[in-house]
Batch of 2 targets.
Target 1
Amino acid sequence: MQQDAPTKRYWTNKFRKWLETVELPCVDRLEVDAHLELWKTYNKQILTIETEIAQRAENNKDVAKIAAISGITAMGAITLLSRIGDIKRFKNPDSLANYFGLTPGCHNTGGKQRIGGITKAGSHAARNVLNFAVIHVVRKDPEMKAWHKKIKARRGAKIARVAVMRKLATIIWHILRWDKPYQFRYEAVLPQKKVKAKSSSKKGFSRHNNKNPIQGSNATRNLKKEKTPLKNRGKTPVKTKA
């Protein structure tokens, strides 16, 4: 049957139509017809489920933002979002790339560190979505195309493709975490430093506040420097003979 089939891809409609007309023995014909009916039933169920998912995703802003990336369809965006879940559980873009299995693995033995290929951990379907998107985003995004071209010339086509997949994972993290549209680069968001409140002295006024001439530190120093008693101020000192 494989030699007489019009195509080797048995999951195509062309192969299914050929199975409906091919001459087979009685028992084999009954078995093939039963499988063909199940095939039609599965196609109807898949179409119904995909239609329901697409209708629910129409009002989802995250799906629309991820689908804005070239090569990622609405179903691809839903696939990624279903694997990601809450984006806040990923502290930074590297953690999301690691979750998708796009970071290199380490093989340490005998005090030697060896960095191998990507770990391929996590969802295989998510990596397929990103891998398919590489072809389109490199063609339509000029900045991504130039960046991919540099890596390809230096490291090869395979590593350049994985690098673009990881870059897309980083972009998706920024889109979901900071609610931004698709772009090639994002500004780093630095944590704000906490400003400590000024400490106050025991007397109830600020240490650096010298506006009050009586309570200020400068007035206190001037009074300490004057050794002449107050009653003798302004009088000329009397010299005494030894």
Target 2
Amino acid sequence: MGPSNGSELTQANATVEERVAHAYRDPLLFAPGTGQSYSDTGYGLAGLMAARVAGVSFPELIRTRVLEPAGLTDTHLVLPTEELPRVAHIAGAPGERGLEFYSSPYGTQLGHPAYGVVATLSDLLRFLLQFDPHADDRFLSKSAVRTMSTDQTGSYYSEGAGYPISKWGAGFELQTGWGDTGLASKASYGHLGGTGCVGWIDPADAVSVAFVSNQNWSASPEGRKWKEAAVNMAIAAVTAPVGRERRVGFRG
């Protein structure tokens, strides 16, 4: 969740710092330690903290620590203006009425740590492979990948508290928590984007799936079924017995 006046901030072309600061004016959703909520503001604050420690802007930090080491040449946190015509219109995205936030010039050039990254399908897959424990060429250590892909909600979940704390890694959804990707194993993890994109890694079968769409399929149960079916097709194809016809790519 973001600040309650998010639409007004968007119309005013507010900076990341201004969006994070405004969120502190809103009342708490629940007392600390008594609940859980997906939070754009939380990621925004974490990004600004990392940038402050590094002494550079967050986009510059991502460029030097992630994009360049991973070879992501067609991925942008702050999209160059000349690249705007390449961005797909996101149908049904939050804030679309009058703003079309996620694929708008403002959304793609804001540089917010929680959203706004623009990439090609091939770059998305290349990014996912950085978190495959079987891959040899990674910019992160095995311990970092393990932390991101295993439950970090700790005792809140295991002690059976009376509120819904879902299992979540340090950055990734887990198949045993919020993940819903059908044929993927319980060891799998990734992210199911609200704009209709999926990035999912299954170490059990050494499979990584990148799926992109311009439909906000997460907005309805029927849409989620279509998205799950697309991921299932990719997983089924690449795990087929050797010698049978395989289709190793899937494009929506």
